[in-house]
Write a structure and sequence with these properties.
It holds the Pfam family TTL. It is a single chain. With 544 residues, the protein is of the alpha+beta class. The protein has 15 helices and 17 strands. Among the domains are: 259 residues, D-amino Acid Aminotransferase, Chain A, domain 1; 120 residues, EF-hand (Recoverin, domain 1), CATH 1.10.238.10. The strands form four sheets. Strands 7, 8, 9, 10, 11, 13, 14 and 17 form an eight-stranded antiparallel β-sheet that branches. A four-stranded antiparallel β-sheet has the order 3-6-4-5, sandwiched between helices. A hairpin with a 5-residue loop joins strand 13 and strand 14. Helix 11 runs parallel beside helix 15, helix 13 packs across helix 14 and helix 14 packs across helix 15. The chain is globular. The relative contact order is 0.10.
Amino acid sequence: MQFPLGRRLPCDIYWHAVSFHDSEHIFSGQVNKFPGMTDMVRKITLSRAMRAMQELFPEEYNFYPRSWILPDETQFFISQVNKVKGIDSSWKPTFIVKPDGGCQGDGIYLIKNPGSIRVMGSTQNKPSVVQEYISKPLLIDKLKFDIRLYVILKSLEPLEIYIAKEGLSRFCTEPYEEPTQKNLHHVFMHLTNYSLNIHSGNFVHSDNANTGSKRTFSSILHRLSSRGMDIKKLWSDIISLVIKTVIALTPDLKVYYQADIPPGKPGPTCFQILGFDILLTKNLKPMLLEVNGNPSMKIEHEQELAPGVVEYVPSLVDEEVKVAVIRDTLRLVDPMKKKYSRKHSNVSENSTEKKDVDDDLFSTKPEKDAVINPESSLPSLCLKQVFPKYAKQFNYLRLKDRIASLFIRFLGIKGTMKLGPTSFRTFIRNCKLSNNSFSMASVDILYIDITRRWNSIGLDHREPGMCLQAFTEAFIFLAQRRFKSIPLHEQVEALIDLCECQLETLDEKRRGLTEYRTLGSWQMDELQVTPSSHVSSKPHKHYQ
């Protein structure tokens, strides 16, 4: 039953159409959207999050194309490209420009010359991302295609990620050729968006999962396997891409989460279905194109019967994939199965040793330790837990998570998302990061410079102060200043360790002081209220 105007009685699960804030005043149950997810998967925000991880771990995050933010970095983009071309004259790249707020392929275009951005009319002032175009994709039937995989973020703390074993493959409708000035505008050749290609006269609707312009991902895997390609490694690489991408997003999501659902206050828990769009290169390397926070769950398509007359026709391929994803997501978060989920989680946490992707990604047999299904008529879960199952392989990447924890600790006021100057000084003082060569005056200058720059690039201005991204930049600056001659990620980790150690010592002192005061108060109460103790009403010397 739908409640477009909200519902007064509490629900076990709230299924929102767009964002966490579709309904207000939810104090219990589960919501199918995380606060802040809509903002975090926008093209600019996602690119910033991925770029921050690429600075720390360039090799681990090379699955995301090089990106620049427009218009803020237009000149930097042009100069960087010209610099590389000056070093390597054989480098003839193509770039793809994507509007930040665009969807379904709207406003996307390709360029060869960085200077072409300036002559694209009204688009030049719109916030966009420009990326290096992947010019050598894997082709099937001479067509370019991408993969839509469904990922379920079940929990932020602890982090719990599932991936659907089946997905969709969306095909272009014009045979692929590497970009040239002549074919740059051939959208049916270069853009895999379903919403674009469905308008092509070559689009093929098919009820067969192995043919047509939209197919199941498993049909592609079987096709690749028949060519002798390593499908297990491909799945392993895809799972790695998914986990690393979520790790890049979680620090900011935690800040959003504590702002909307402060600790200690009643509120719902959250989960979310995400759509990961992935492109395979010619050598079978998965590359992340984008993440969709509201992936389409339509299982029919429009068919024109006559000019202006359409009917909705079921799509068996969509139905096969999407119904299973929604059904099993609801089974996964079913509040009546908490004890089974707890058992499944405990088993997963105890089996985090390093290993390749399990064979059961390709099996329809139910997992031995899967969430028990009381309805035997339902098929086995189509969702596979990948985190914390493979946590040991990826926990070393979660440095920004630890930085976010420091940031949240010093926010002070519940519900805020930015750090004030006093809170930043408290962070520096408590972690003992100032010294003779880095005074508190230098701390204030650092805060003002970085905060002013981040607040000038079009981020949220509703609240003054230092955002998490600005805090992270300041933290990296401090790490580079204190620890030299080691890689950046080691510098950052060393400073995190130092801060956590200082704060733990401070917490222990505070706990000890609290216990001392509590004990003293209890002893005074004993002296004052115990009638049989025959203690003089005058203070004992021990307490003077």
